Amino acid sequence: MSKSGVTVTPDCITQFNDLKLKKSIKYIIYKLSDDYKEIVVEETSSDPDWDTFQNKILNAKASYKGKEGKGPRYAVYDFQYELEAGEGTRNKIVFISWSPDEGTLVFPRMTYASSKEALKNALNGIGAEVQANNEDEIEYATILKDISKGKR
User: Fold this and answer.
1) For residue 132, what pLDDT is reported?
2) CA atoms within 13 A on the CB side of 138
3) What is the pTM of this model?
4) Which label site among 17, 67, 79, 86 has the fewest CB atoms less than 10 Å from its CB?
């Protein structure tokens, strides 16, 4: 359980293990349930297209007390990249915490922030973490640069 009292549903862990072990899933997008009491799987996909994934994250919505704003999300992406000097291909499971600086309602943003560790701790095998608050931080090239050099 997180500091906010939010729990992680078992499906979150099951889907992550499928991504990690079976390699049948490319990414998982997680969200808080509508009552803000559980972290649930919003979507899984085997589509390797980064732009499709990025658009889903950037266009996420959250509502609270009848108001709607940009939606924070958590995601796990099985990131594949080439090593410099032709040393081969590597995969790294990247945990992404997306919480836009602008247009996000306060309650969802604070609940996501205080619940992140509960999800991260439930997912064994994360290779890197990215905290993204603006669109530049969730660009493929930005993440590739950071994870391929071990910065995140």
Assistant:
1) 93
2) 28
3) 0.91
4) 86
Alpha helices, DSSP H, located in the chain: 10-17, 50-58, 106-122, 140-148
Which whole-number Å values give the CA distances from 130 to 37, 50, 54, 57, 68, in the listed order?
A: 24, 15, 13, 13, 25
| pLDDT at 150 exceeding the cut of 70 | no
Residue labelled with tokens 């604070």: 110
Q: What is the pLDDT of residues 41-88, one digit of tens each?
A: 999 999 999 999 999 999 999 988 888 888 999 999 999 888 777 778
Q: Which residues pair with 8 in a beta bridge?
A: 39
| E strand or H helix at 43 | strand 38-45
Alpha-carbon distance of 40 to 100, in angstroms, equals 20
Tell me which amino acid residue 76 is: V
Q: Classify the C-alpha dihedral 21-25-31-32 as positive or negative.
A: negative
pLDDT of residue 152: 40
Report whether 114 contacts 4 (CB < 8 A).
yes
Q: Does residue 1 carry a pLDDT above 70?
A: no
